[in-house]
Design brief:
Rossmann fold; single chain; alpha/beta; about 40% helix; OB fold (Dihydrolipoamide Acetyltransferase, E2P); globular; about 675 residues; binds adenosine-5'-diphosphate; binds magnesium ion
Length: about 675
Amino acid sequence: MLLSDTDIKYVKGVGPKVSRILNRLNINTVEDLLLHTPSRYVDRGNIKEIREVKKGETVTLVGTILDVGSRLTRARKTIIEILFSDGTGNIKLVFFNQPYIKNTLKRGEHLLVYGVVDFYRGYQIIQPEYEILGEDGREIENSDKIVPVYPLTEGFSQRYLRKIIHNALINIDVDRWKVLENDLLSQFDVISFIDAIRKTHNPPVMEDAIVGKKALAFYEFLYLQVYLRKQRYIREKKSGAVIEGKILVNKLLKNLPFVLTNAQEKVTDEIFQDLKSSERMSRLLQGDVGSGKTIVALLASLAAIDSDYQVAIMAPTEILAKQHYGKIVNYISGFQVNIRLLTSSTKKSEKIKIKDDLKNGKIKFIIGTHALIEDDVVFESLALAIVDEQHRFGVEQRKKLLMKGNGAHLLVMTATPIPRSLAMTLYGDLDVSIIDEMPPGRQKIVTRWIRNNKRGELYSFIQNRIDENNDQVYVVYPLVEESEKLDLKAATVMYESLKKHFKGINVGLIHGKMKSADKDAAMIKFAKGEINILVGTTVIEVGIDVANATIMVIEHPERFGLSQLHQLRGRIGRGEKKSYCIMITDKYIGDLSAERLKIMENTSDGFIIAEEDLKIRGPGNVYGTRQHGLPNFRVADIVRDEKMLIKARKCAKLIIDSNIELNYNTMLYKKIDNMEKYYRIG
Ligand code: ADP
Ligand code: MG
């Protein structure tokens, strides 16, 4: 009897060799094998007769190879052409550059073929997927069953995979694969895990396959949601500091040169409510770039400091930490709050002093980078941990900071608007506050996509704006790890050429490979207005805040993600002046890229942009996977299966809140236990 965590080598038909191949596909246990779900299905109803095919259709055909021919192109590439017939007609199958196909696809071989019909001197399918049906391969043609087709790599046939999956399915120990009790199944209108697996691999009718796969997604989500709920439950059991101080808060509010927006007031209220209660706060503060999160964080911090606790704000980069520090010191000058900055470039002697004073409680307010979570940073009474640009940190880093307090409240902030589905996955354990309103007086940023042939006009425009308005300009280059050297060079070349073009105007360069001090020097010059054009790689994405910077030129925008473009764009439009974001591309770019750039032109709403980004690129690419705590789901897709995600979240809440015993025998228990190991701070 097979359990979910049984090694696949115990499945009948899986020898050491097959086992190795499966391991390479990241299939190690019986459950992994059964979550290797079909990418499509074949049934008699959807096998087409060749005489009926039309151009552009995606079809499944079954037939026999009549003839195989090959020829070389002028570039000496092999083209293999196969004449294929099912008795109702013939069609050509064309393979490029795969000479070895001749050895497997021989005359008389019986095949299942899948692909898009094309027409060129007759019907043909280019690079079809195929399956050799072999001697007993008539199973598909002649059976009334729906036959699954699996995503595969080389090493074994569909038929073989079907067989071992079948063997696994019939030997399952059903009782031990139980995830939810029947009453929960009916309450959430979902089929059991086992049923879901059976339906997915062996659907009596096509609808079953869909129901099965959706349910599998539900279970994958459920494990994560139960885990996150449980984490929160554990965290909240330890009571938090009760924070009610209002003197400093009111003093700051009185001194502010502006009034809070309604949105800022609302979220500040939400945070104060949390801080006041002895239950620990776990809150995510979302707000577009420039929406004014810093002041909200500062108000919360002052409340804690007023109650004689310590506060830490952690930012992902040195520049950002310094900027926060600078701004906050400015806001609270004359408050007599002992505030310090701690980063990796803080002088050694000063570091020691800061660490001492954190330990003895003299420093009340510390702002810094990862340096804050080093082991020898010890707090006397950390009551509020704030993490800025949360998506740049891993789950573990956030926990590390939090654990430096004894029941500290947690506020994480992000300027990357996160679609609801993703927030639930990544931050299922957090409450969410959203600043959905910009401070008044902000100009809408004019965003335009132009082609390289308009570069001359762009430069005249820039020249004009600088001459007449003394405007400042960012020119941004993408920098990706794989081509880092080339990208750096491109940015440097651009810098040289801009220097030549804009005579008498100060042009600066900043990139990630520069020494931190040089980077800062360039930034400071730009902030002071001593540089008018700053060429940079994406290091400026998070960071500086220069109100006079009103033009951003983005080179190769097609190489950035939408959310990233939006972040970049948020660096301008920070003052009263009208701002322009110009994305410049080569003459020809792909349709998908063009579509994305048009989204940028037409919307300034970060949430809409984030949703689009997620749809286009998928969560792994948008937000990173493991290091940000986003699990690699085998079946579930947080965009496609959002309904299941919502259901799973509700179900998880019910399970944890009602204290249903997470029984040792259940799958659920094992899953959560696994996740705990995976997330444990090492
Ligand atoms: P972000 O949400 O990107 O961190 P910041 O907190 O840096 O935004 O705020 C952006 C700018 O807007 C800052 O210069 C800040 O002083 C200003 N600001 C914040 N709140 C208001 C407000 N209610 N009215 C006017 N200006 C504001
Ligand atoms: Mg900010």
